[in-house]
C-alpha cells in the first residue's frame, strides 16, 4: 500500500536520508525507531510531500507520488499526523474534525465522524469544547481523527506518544491496532517509545544516521542484543 524505494532527502545542503526502503502493506503496522537525529521525521516528511526527495520513489496505493506536493499526496490516500499535535485551539472538536474532511462528500462526513468517535469515545462528550482546552492525549486523538476524516488508506504518524501518560499511550495505540485490523489501514509509525512501538508493531525498522540499520518483527529484534541495549533498556 505504501512503498518507499531508495529514498534520498534532506534540507538545503544537508543530506539526511541515504537510501531508505520501506514497504507497508494494507493491514500492517511498521514502526520506525532510532536515535535522535537519525532522520525518522525526515522520512515521514519526504513520504508525505512536505519536503521534496532528491531521489527515490514513493507510491501510495500503486500511484507514484514522489515529489508531489503534500495536498496531492493526501489526495492519493495518505494522511500525515505530525509531531507537534497542532489542533485549531479556538475551534471546537467538531469543527477540527470537520476540517479534516473538507475534501469529502458531505454525505460521507457523518459516517466518517461516527467512526472517529467510535475509535476515540472520549471525544464524543467534548465535541462542542474548544480543542485548545483538551488534554494532550485528547488533542492527539483529535489530530489523528482529523487525519482519518479524509478517508486515507495510509496513515503516517510522528511520535504520537510524546509526553502522554501510559494509559493514554495505550488507548491511542489500541486505536491504531483497530485501524489496522478492522479498517485495513497501512500504518507507518515513528516512535521514541520503543517499548510501546514493539507492543503494537507487526514489524520494526531501526534507523541510524539516515539509513535503515536493521528490520524485523518485534520478536526478532528483541532478540538482538544491540537493539535490546540501545532501545529496550535491557542488559
Ligand atoms: P528526533 O527523534 O530527535 O525527532 P529524527 O530521527 O526524527 O530525530 P530528524 O528530525 O529527521 O530526526 O532530523 C534528521 C537531521 O535533519 C538532524 O540532523 C536535524 O538537525 C536535521 N533537520 C531536521 N529538520 C530540519 C530542517 N527543517 N532544516 C534543517 N535541518 C533539519
From TrEMBL:
InterPro entries: AAA+_ATPase, ABC_transporter-like_ATP-bd, ABC_transporter-like_CS, BCAA_Transport_ATP-bd_LivF, P-loop_NTPase. SMART domains: AAA. GO terms for molecular function: ATP binding; ATP hydrolysis activity; branched-chain amino acid transmembrane transporter activity. Pfam families: ABC_tran. Residues 2-234 form the ABC transporter domain. Gene3D superfamilies: P-loop containing nucleotide triphosphate hydrolases. GO terms for biological process: L-amino acid transport. PROSITE patterns: ABC_TRANSPORTER_1 (PS00211), ABC_TRANSPORTER_2 (PS50893). Keywords: Amino-acid transport, ATP-binding, Nucleotide-binding, Transport. Belongs to the ABC transporter superfamily. PANTHER family: HIGH-AFFINITY BRANCHED-CHAIN AMINO ACID TRANSPORT ATP-BINDING PROTEIN LIVF (PTHR43820:SF4). This is ABC transporter ATP-binding protein.
